[in-house]
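::Amino acid chain::
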Amino acid sequence: MTRVSQAGSGSDLDFGVIQKVLVVDDSRLQRRILVASLKKWGFDVLEADSGDVAIEMCASDPPDLILSDWVMPGMSGLDFCKAFRALDNKQYSYFILLTSKSEKQEVARGLDAGADDFLIKPLEADELRARISAGARILDMQRELSKKNLMIETALEELRVAHDAIDKDLIQARKIQESLVPELTRDFGKSRVSMLLKPCGHIGGDLVGMFSPGVNRLGFYSIDVSGHGITSAMMTARLGGYLSSNHFDQNVAMARRFDKFYALLPPEEVAETLNSRLMADTGIEEYFTMVYAIVDLRNGHVKMVQAGHPHPLLLCQDGRTEFLGEGGLPIGLLPDVTFQRTEFYMQPGDRLLLYSDGFTECSLADGGLLDEDGLRQMALDCGPDRNGTEFLDDMFWRLTQAMAPGRGMDDDVSAVFFEYSGH
């Protein structure tokens, strides 16, 4: 029989979040004794004479605290505890089993079933009140944690929605950026220009392009905007307009002559024009590196400007290789900068590779960087028989194989490959 001493009473006691208590016992007398003490302490008390009745009550309106006898006919307190924990309750309830069983094995069974605490009969009021107070502290912490978890889940859901919207925008932005390079390879007479553009994210800060205002006249470029992501991509979109292959009247690398045709301006003048435009725009902190070259396809005469971009690699038909260019400052760093022109002649069978530092500054599996020597060897390993986009795809594949495992691309990778085959 359950007996509770009446030491310590009063309705002004603070039991935290515990307000509603369910007493489950097949003995009416035992329930009455427990209920009397609980009501004195200010609880709203419910009663059930069996586990079956109790589980029905808990399914619709779970209490904050359950005091259940272990030994009952039909559904035992242990089975009731298991069934209660199986309910889909949004709030956690504290469960105390009342038992005469004190063996460790029995206590372990109760804990496994989901009980939080035990009280050994006969009950003392002070101990019962202390156990309820301890349970109240645990429930206070648990519900505060649940509230914070709910706030976190809400915030994460808001972030997920925002992320999905940004991701959708970035996918569309990538399509727009890809439209700046409508074709990756194009023949100009017997010669050919091929391009590679591989951003390290949805969008990138590299840009490649080519244009020809007339027969035997060809311009192509490789650009790398500082930084990564949206800001750099917006700059490439702007530069794509400045160097448009479709709207020659907007292309700063061309000038209208005699209202009949467009002429390619000297590369160093193009670099200076772009530098002036960037410096005139206040609030823009981005700059970019560039190699821009124009070719007379009749004789292989190349005029080129290098503005802080990696040195182009000339692959000669006879097997010789040479890095070209004078270095130079990036565009958009300083006002009133002059740029130097580099000139050379290509022979039929010679090939010229422009590339971004996503190649040479790629982190390799051995901890080093690819650098110029590694790039040269990689280009030679591709062999003279690979042409156009096949050559560039092979270069990129070799680069990915040499990368540090699991690291991925740290920077955008881009290249322009010009194959000169004579007039």
Notes: Residues 1-11 have pLDDT under 50 and may be disordered. The chain has two domains: 20-148, 180-419. The first strand starts at residue 20 and ends at 24.
